[in-house]
Design goal:
By secondary structure, this protein is of the alpha/beta class. The chain contains eleven helices and 19 strands. It folds into two domains: about 5-165 and about 325-340, Nucleotidyltransferase, domain 5, CATH 3.30.420; about 180-315, ATPase, nucleotide binding domain (Nucleotidyltransferase, domain 5). Helix 5 packs across helix 11 (about 325-340) and helix 6 packs antiparallel against helix 9 (about 265-285). The chain binds adenosine-5'-triphosphate and magnesium ion (MG).
Amino acid sequence: MLPYAIDLGNGYTKTSYGNKPRLMPSYVSQVVNESDICDDFGPGGGAFLLYLSGDRHDLIGTKWLLGEAAKISFPATYQRVVEASAGKIEYALQFALSDVLCCHKYQNVTIPALYASLPDPLTDGEKFKKAVLGRHEIQLAHVNSPPDARFHYFVTIENCKILHEGQGAFINAIATGIIPGGVAAGIIDCGSGTTIAQCFSANGHLIPSSRTVSPVGVHHLLKMIATDPRLKERIGGEGNLHLIQQAIEDSSFSYGASNVDIEQIFREHRKVWAQSALRKALEKFSSMKDEIDSILLVGGGAHIVKAICQKSSIILSPNPQTANVMGMARLAELKIARSAA
Ligand SMILES: Nc1ncnc2c1ncn2[C@@H]1O[C@H](COP(=O)(O)OP(=O)(O)OP(=O)(O)O)[C@@H](O)[C@H]1O
Ligand SMILES: [Mg+2]
């Protein structure tokens, strides 16, 4: 019985099965003919899932590629979770099951409590639970195993707890001593598609009126760079978002095989982008400065806006992209320990 948590993002799905965070791009594709599947699942994380039988009757007999594998096999038709109107619910189970890889090829897996986060648990929490709870018989092939090595599992998700996005990061920060416990704190989550600012009370509850969402995330910065006339001129067209992302993430600022230096373009756009992503958040927090003790920066985009932390009192979370899922995994672990006691 391992603790399990999932944070389904617009850009990346973060899972933690047994305290080990894993990331995969939030791409998905249904598979009609298995012969269309490319053996290469990609280094970015991917899985093949066949739903054999179980409580999700609508999924029986369906096959899925998840993560980078979906994009590699179906470059023209794969879907981003964010593109589906209720993608985080429609694909919740497929992504949740994609990380249940144990050491035995045939196994019963019981998940006593799946912890997940949603932007609006009140509206979508019950739908999410309905999508994941119950018994599921699956076959799974994972990026870390050869594509033809299928694992056969009976997975039972007994319970599901839905938190607000960011709540896990708040709990993780207190548990690891990054921010003090027992006081309210603000969190800025700079993700792929959005930058969300919100405050949590001393007991870890969201203060709804504190929440502001800017529809500006790292994706928009990548797009600004991709369409910059200087880059377009150097490479003869719009830049590839994935190559730009790689160049920023590895801090080489070297674009693709042609090694075009994009550092200057990145720095100029980052300034404008960071202001639009963070403006609402900083305004909100400045109006609440007497109520909050500290402000924590999380999300993959934290790596890019961290420069602002040095100038202000904002605390950069270690491992900001997985902080939320790790906090939820901690709660799942506690729940298992309590039930066993
Ligand atoms: N080391 C890094 N340097 C720069 N950018 C990074 C780094 N690590 C991750 N990112 C960027 O962070 C973004 C993903 O962040 P995150 O996983 O928090 O977003 P998400 O949860 O998928 O999106 P959202 O919260 O909007 O739903 C990606 O665009 C990725 O390029
Ligand atoms: Mg996110």
